[in-house]
Amino acid sequence: MSAPAARASDGPASRLRAWIERAGRVARQVLGAPDYERYLGDALARDPDERLLSRDEFVAARLRARYDSPGSRCC
To answer: Is the pLDDT of residue 2 over 50?
Structure first.
């Protein structure tokens, strides 16, 4: 049995791109930046018929939740 043929998508450029995307997701999580793509995946998994927020609506809602909640700040 021979090894499977390498696909073009498995090349160094593809792996680098995937690594950069993962690093960007981690950086956004550390900084507390809203992750719209994760929201879409979670919302569709929870209820496919739910009305999805636009990217602008999502960011505005996350900012409101972050800054308007009592006790959400240290000072």
So the answer is: no
Give dist(CA 64, CA 28) in Å, integer. 17
Residue 63: partners with Cβ closer than 8 Å, 6 or more residues away: 34
Structural domains of the chain, count: 1
pTM strictly above 0.85: no
Q: Alpha-carbon distance 55 to 33, whole Å?
A: 13
Host domain of residue 39: 35-69
45 within domain boundaries: yes
Given a contact cutoff of 8 angstroms between Cβ atoms, the answer to whether 43 and 52 are in contact is: yes
Distances in Å between the Cα of 69 and the Cα atoms of 6, 38, 73 are 51, 22, 8
Q: Does some domain include residue 22?
A: no
